[in-house]
């Protein structure tokens, strides 16, 4: 209530939750997402080649196939639910709020790593220009200057994003168009000047260089190239007509990324063939000398020499600009994700507060922008790249299962776009691409966890435990349940008391005896105490499941779940397993396959 101008004059102001303005079209969504996805090739190609060697093109193509299923999955979910949050929003709506928070918390780690890696690598490519512009060489050779410049870059992008999404999207679109044109020219020149299929084929040594285990690990690492697709989902709340703009922007990103990822690694393996540096060990200069800037190494092999010089300078400028786009896209994604968690009461309300003038979530931008800048300080790109992949693959796997589950939880939900390849099952249809994508990404995630690259698994688990502890404390403070079952229990005030209370003596009637019959006095049911309500709601989800499916089915399901879990952890699938013994990819494929089957069977029984 606000006081008016005249004495005694009051007016009531009713305010809804703050909303982000819908101003973004297909171009803005495409530019922001492609800046995050396409830029990863500048630091993912060299790391992937270190594991895949001659099979680097195949590793990126297989990772790209998984990326296609994920992109289409996000297109369906985002078009139906155009809200900031991405996979966190999908999980919250398909399952429950606690799981939605866990996915969102992991995604915050993903975007924070995106900001730090992209900004740090952008300054690294800028330092490559020191060969031609002397003062810029300090960024390449002096670590403190390198880190300081990256932190300044993040600070500038924080200001741009606070001022407004329109300004940063215009920068994204301009730079992304320049990047696309340049990449097209570089790939065409590489095909005509450098590509040699005979060399590419001779690089392949099946099962030796790389080993099968390293090849599977390379697919996991190659997923870094495709982990920015969530950007479109997080910006969908600001998209004009998201039912059309989101799928179109997604298809554009798919085509552009697959084009670059198919040709550029093949050209790179033509320039830097695999060789044996000592007995039993193979390598390539793409994964050694040019590991940090593989694209610069590829264009440096152009001929004549003048073309190589011009291309090297231009690629350094291009890499710097496109990595600025990636840094900005990561900052946009992390601010929108924290905004989504805050408005759904999973984060402090301050993170949902919009700037009074620019209408942007300025607190989220500042807080997580600073967090990204802090992560730059150690300068360990390999470590954060692995953590980046772990966080993204976990979120992608949950997103696949959530979109599949939503087909049955909300069959009447308006879906402007549906994934192709569906199979009728119960009251809805199974999205085949979601099932394939979930199993594939679960396998990749499991392999990354087993590889533990630069202790990334420990950092990931530490971040996860920190989020769970914070969420537990927050829910306990709010006196809300820590976990919510998939089947929503009835409210406590609608429960029926079934306790037997004997009537008073004067209301009892003896049959067969003479005497005065007294009218029965109704006995009111006692008011349920908080202790009684708590007792009734304890394990209510399990009791409802037993009533619906029977004790035998529930017991068999729990036994099967335990058996699959034990098998996934301790089983070595075969002594002759070409991918190596012990843990690796097998836990992921077993657990995710079981989860997908369980959700589908549960949905079929609910229909």
Overview of the structural elements:
The chain is built from 22 helices and 6 strands. The chain is mainly α and 607 residues long. The strands form 3 sheets. It has a two-stranded antiparallel ribbon. The protein has a two-stranded antiparallel sheet with strand order 3-4. A two-stranded antiparallel sheet has the order 5-6. Strand 5 (422-425) and strand 6 form a beta hairpin. The relative contact order is 0.15.
Q: What does the secondary structure layout of this molecule look like, with pairings?
A:
Layout: E1 2-3, E2 10-11, H1 26-37, H2 41-52, H3 56-80, H4 87-94, H5 97-128, H6 138-141, H7 143-163, H8 165-193, H9 197-202, H10 212-222, H11 230-235, H12 242-271, E3 275-278, E4 281-283, H13 294-299, H14 305-343, H15 362-376, H16 381-409, E5 422-425, E6 428-431, H17 432-451, H18 456-478, H19 530-537, H20 540-549, H21 551-570, H22 586-606
Antiparallel strand pairs: 1-2, 3-4, 5-6
Helix pairs in contact: 1-8, 1-12, 1-14, 2-10, 3-10, 3-12, 3-16, 3-17, 4-5, 4-16, 5-7, 5-14, 5-15, 5-16, 5-18, 7-14, 7-15, 8-12, 8-14, 10-17, 14-15, 16-17, 16-18, 16-22, 17-22, 20-21, 21-22
Instruction: Say how many strands there are.
Output: 6
How much is the radius of gyration in Å? 29 Å
Listing every helix as H and every strand as E from the N terminus to the C terminus, the arrangement reads EEHHHHHHHHHHHHEEHHHHEEHHHHHH
Helical stretch tally: 22
Mean pLDDT: 75
Query: How would you sum up the major sheet?
Result: 2 strands, antiparallel
